[in-house]
Amino acid sequence: MATFTDIALSGGFNILFVFVFFLAFAILRLQPLNDRVYFPKWYLRGIRCTPTRSGHVASRFVNLNVETYFRFLNWMPAAIKMPQPELIDHAGLDSAVYVRIYLLGLKIFVPIFAMASCVLIPINLTGKALSSKDNISFSEIDKFSISNIAPGSHRLWAHLAMAYVFTFWTLYMLYKEYKMIGSMRLHFLASQDRRPDQFTVIVTNVPPDPDETVSQHIQHFFRVNHTDHYLTHQVVYNANNLALLIEERKALHNWLVYYQNKHEKNRDERPQTRTGFLGLWGNRVDAIEHYTTMIEKLTQEADMERERVVSDRNAILPVAFVSFKTRWGAAVCAQTQQTSNPTLWLTEWAPEPRDVYWRNLAIPFVELAIRKLSMVVALFFLTFFFMIPIAFVQSLANIESIEKVFPFLRPIIETKTIKSVVQGLLPGIALKIFLILLPTLLMLMSMIEGFTSLSTLERKTASKYYFFLLMNVFLGSVVTGTAFDQLSSFLSKSASKIPVIIGQSIPMSATFFITYIMVDGWAGVSAEIIRLKPLIVFHLKNTFLVKTEQDREEAMDPGSLAFSASEPRIQFYFLLGLVYSAVTPILLPFIIIFFALSFIVFRHQIINVYNQEYESGAAFWPDVHGRIIFALITSQILLMGLMNTKEAFQSTPFLLVLVSLTIWFHLFCKSRFEPTFVKFPLQDAMMKDTLERATEPNLYLKGYLQNAYVHPVFKDGEDVCSQILDEEERRPLVTTKRIIHNINAGTSKGTFV
Amino acid sequence: MATFTDIALSGGFNILFVFVFFLAFAILRLQPLNDRVYFPKWYLRGIRCTPTRSGHVASRFVNLNVETYFRFLNWMPAAIKMPQPELIDHAGLDSAVYVRIYLLGLKIFVPIFAMASCVLIPINLTGKALSSKDNISFSEIDKFSISNIAPGSHRLWAHLAMAYVFTFWTLYMLYKEYKMIGSMRLHFLASQDRRPDQFTVIVTNVPPDPDETVSQHIQHFFRVNHTDHYLTHQVVYNANNLALLIEERKALHNWLVYYQNKHEKNRDERPQTRTGFLGLWGNRVDAIEHYTTMIEKLTQEADMERERVVSDRNAILPVAFVSFKTRWGAAVCAQTQQTSNPTLWLTEWAPEPRDVYWRNLAIPFVELAIRKLSMVVALFFLTFFFMIPIAFVQSLANIESIEKVFPFLRPIIETKTIKSVVQGLLPGIALKIFLILLPTLLMLMSMIEGFTSLSTLERKTASKYYFFLLMNVFLGSVVTGTAFDQLSSFLSKSASKIPVIIGQSIPMSATFFITYIMVDGWAGVSAEIIRLKPLIVFHLKNTFLVKTEQDREEAMDPGSLAFSASEPRIQFYFLLGLVYSAVTPILLPFIIIFFALSFIVFRHQIINVYNQEYESGAAFWPDVHGRIIFALITSQILLMGLMNTKEAFQSTPFLLVLVSLTIWFHLFCKSRFEPTFVKFPLQDAMMKDTLERATEPNLYLKGYLQNAYVHPVFKDGEDVCSQILDEEERRPLVTTKRIIHNINAGTSKGTFV
Hints:
- Two copies of one chain form a homodimer.
- Chain A is mainly alpha-helical.
- The first copy, chain A, folds into three domains: 4-194 and 501-679, no CATH class; 196-351 and 697-722, no CATH class; 366-449, no CATH class.
- The first copy, chain A, has 32 helices and six strands.
- In chain A, the strands form two sheets. In chain A, strands 2-5-1-6 form a four-stranded antiparallel sheet. In chain A, strands 3-4 form a two-stranded antiparallel sheet.
- The longest helix of chain A has 36 residues, at 156-191.
- Chain A is globular, with a radius of gyration of 29 Å.
- Chains A, B: Keywords: Ion channel, Ion transport, Membrane, Transmembrane, Transmembrane helix, Transport.
- Chains A, B: Residues 10-177 form the CSC1/OSCA1-like N-terminal transmembrane domain.
- Chains A, B: This is Hyperosmolality-induced [Ca2+]i increase 1 (Osca1).
- Chains A, B: It is a multi-pass membrane protein.
């Protein structure tokens, strides 16, 4: 059992890690060579550019000003200083609201910890239940927890009362935050410049018409049913093949540049390559010539495909972006049902052009329903049975089978030290690889489900990931075993016994979670700031692929917040904090440090590094809110189970009331605030329309909207991965394709259309 | 245990009852005196009128034509003969769709029974598990059931396969029916004449404005935000007090007429009454004078109140009926969010004027949320703890306490026979009274929840009632005991054991449910056709209150379908049928007879008797569909439990798949069909608008809509209970107030505003 010394030691180590990371960050970021890795956002905004070539040669690569190293933590106040309106303007509402989740964590848990230290910790410490026992199988941390209270003690009423206080405080904070973010969103939407998506609605499931083309049919339909408001529309081409071709060409182009650079450095020798897979086998050919001809061939193919797509009637999908003369007209069309058959002419607000996920636009209604069903089933099996294939891989990936397949490795493996290392690592590696691939896998599942915008894809993936974390990490750590073990054991146990079983293990897992918070939370967050992977990738690209300043611009990878993977992990800390607030409040300071650290780090990152692929206007907040509520209810039910093992049966009805109140609060907030995140009120639309008519009476809106929603492959014939020229957005944007590329890397492209 | 003879005897008795009822009906309805009781609908439609005064005196009261008595069942073919379009035209879509629920029951269960008799009954009969046992504690019915199959037998695969077949058949029928009723609704809405509710939206939660009156504020808001579409609006006055006064005067008026009639019959004596409660005590006064002055006083009060309401600024509620120039404009306003605060300016389709429940119009948003929460809690306690107050009343209502309160009754009660009767009846009476009052109580709860239309009130009450029936009647009969016993026993049992416990009791309850179906179903339905209560009430009123032909018209009570109480009971038979279809299919013919009988009886009633208070366009169908799906899932889970007790564990995953498929089907149907029942498509609105503009270019719509939504007390100053003069409806309608009167009878009026 962990003693205080253990915890302190582990804490010391982790604090050391954090400081090492921060020091490394301070040193690395001060080197001009790394400037594009640590300040890409400023480059993208055009405020910063590559250090001037004048001056000492070394100073272009290494910072020789010793003084700057002493102020190595001064990025922290700088990160906090930027006021919120400026931050929203600089990084977008999505990012600004995202860091507020950490702030919300602080707002909830600092007062809760203060209250708990005044009331619960003294009560627990003087409980004496543990010291009187003979067995010593309890950690010292447990003395601070409810475990130190004797069963049936009247002191448990204090825990019950504090559960009420904590719940009400959390709900109050949640209410305030929801209200605040709702008004931030409205203000953000109201203050935005003119954007194509304000006037545009995406129409899916356009029924086929024997006499008209899709385009004509759409035009007639909206001319008739939105007579005064319809302006124009853009059909969507099925350009998935074309996009693949262009993507392929991009990869070849990178190889070409690589060999050209190589040739430039060594003029005497022409670089060679093999024609087979990855240049590993096949005939030797001249690399530059080979790639030049390959690229030419692909360019021809792409041109043919482009012509085919544009001229082929069947390449037009039954989907369109329909634009209206006014925001009011678009708001009306997006919120109403068009025809008596609710599976046809479905209208929705168009996501902004960067946010569109083009591949999923053409899925018919019935197929969508089937895809949803299959993904729900898949998620269930993934969560509860993921250990089965991993165990299978593990059973294969033992030394004997490796020796069978690669007999030439035998002499190396049979070495004793290597053998033990391989045997120790192999089973873990399979699991680790799975866990690293998991967010990608879940994103793929969301894609198969058929959502049509990147923001929705990220939100749905986050939900799936949270479910997985909850079942496997939280329950898996509390009641040891995989989710599948728990599923079968819970099914065979009484419904009212389940919270009791989990509840009584809760205090015992406190020390484990404290260590977990320090390793995964503290060290993980401070590792984030070093950006090790982008650092390496940038320098590799810079060495081999960069020729012009524009190439260098492209080699830069600002990254983004990766909502789908990181939000569920924040939620996990909310869950831990709420569950332990009334049980082992001594865990809270660790969580508070995590939230504070994360707040500073991520605020710094969104100011200096990340560049969001899209802007959804904080559309994810209802999900964040809902999951915190869920964590709150979980904590109440587990406390109920715990109280039962403490023979405080009278507390059950009180906690049931608390659960009902929390659910009611959620429903209330849902009806009160959620529409703000889903609908667009007519009053605001009318206001903006009126203002615009007054200030710009001669605006030629049709021209403005004409090409706003064109598939990226048609927008920029030369390079699909270059930036989309969104005329209205003054700052350059990264194309929507990048996130998809990241995700697709390593997954079969054929599995979804 | 019930043998075949028992069942046959019980069946014989019940069939006898049915015939007696039908015979009584045949005799009663042929008497001209009862014509208004059995054919009120035709009177209301103006097609039938009181038999002519010419001819034999006796023939005005008694039918002397013997021949007609022999054709005493000829109303049955007549009831079936009317084709559906005519029926919809005659009785409205609500009623026509309501009887289709019975037809759906036949469509589902007749083929299921046919399949079951070919496959399951032979398999069960030759099972021999029961005959081989020593104990004889099984009924002969059980030989037809799954009980006769030995545990672990391979024959159980047949039951599993049939569960699949039955499920798919039911789902297919449900899908067809949903589609059919959706298109019936659309066709109905499209073919309707111009009605005020097509152009009108109800706006609630209008925020207060310091500078403007409510009316001005509404006008300005809609002028600005629906510039091209806003036409006019009507504010709502808080006339609840006025309505009470006028109601009271109506009651006094009835008494006046009663005494006037009495005086007319006996000119010598002026009738007298006492001034106290119900004329039971107080000073003796001349009755006619007394009531005349009372009525005058109330009329004055009502006039003052009416003036106060109209002139008082505070009597205007923050609610209005806003009308638009086109159906398109109204459809847009009803489906969109108006302002950034989603709790203000809430818009919804206006219910038709008859359907408005005026009392609930002014409940603020937050209060609504609190009311909903408290009613959910109340329903929970009502369902699970209703036995507690009843047991308390029962403990009070014993002979000893009656003797204490009414000592003068002692000699009578102490008589031995009376004593035993009282002791036997008293406990049952308390429960019976509760069950009779239950639908009223549930309706009251729905009213407190704050729904604003009668159709919604009825639908929500039906949901509550179904929940109660399910928990207390179904589970209560299968696993003997009250719902509360079950709740506590289930909570203490394993989640996967619950279906097993219920499942294994299912076959044993078959004989009980067969008897239940015959008594409650067969006899209950055939008793419906006699209309005993309206028959008595009509003759009482006819004798004492009727002076003019118009009075007679008012004395007629056509009644209505009482969706809130009768639909859950149909659903109960669906549940029984589906649960027993794979277990004891011999129960199905009893249900089939119930559905057939009900179909004929209710089709006759909606043609000749009932007069719907409102027309919701079958808006209740999604509820009906959802509850049948729920019954289906229940049946699958219970079969799973039963299979487990039969050691057919392999069947569990198959049945889980079936459950998932059923849930998925439900979600699919929900997204496919439900919008038809909730929204109004813009295309249809535009079509009707265009047509109207072409056919009636000079229509003065504003005048038509001006007074459509006026509180009934202002519409008819003389008599609130008389018919609302809905200009467009050609057939006379019964006021919306009547149903409320029925419901309010016996409940405190002060509990809701």
